[in-house]
Design brief:
Length: 100
């Protein structure tokens, strides 16, 4: 079967490499958490949004307005929310690849 992007493999994914990185690695189906957007407050009409981002070095940074604060990875899992604590609103993941 052929589509606009090129031939597909059995899983329906395009087998046509789109960049040098794609030619040297492939997806594993495993994803790593790389960022979380949280809301702190009791309603959608009030509160505050904060971004928590994992750096290439593996360290997490909390971006609260113009005040970046290093965080421990263990603290990221506590972003479940409730009352006046941060609730994970949007979670962003990056696909893990392995070399071919």
């Amino acid at each position: 079967m052929t589509d606009v992007e090129g031939p597909s493999n059995e899983s329906g994914e395009s087998s046509k490499p789109t960049s040098k990185e794609d030619k040297e690695s492939h997806l594993t189906g495993i994803y790593d958490l790389v960022a979380v957007l949280t809301h702190k407050g009791r309603s959608a009409d009030s509160g505050h949004y904060v971004a928590w981002v994992k750096q290439e070095s593996g360290k997490w940074i909390e971006f609260d307005d113009d005040n970046p604060i290093p965080q421990r990875e263990e603290d990221i899992t506590k972003l479940s929310g409730g009352g006046d604590w941060h609730m994970a609103y949007i979670c962003m993941y990056k696909a893990r690849t392995v070399p071919m």
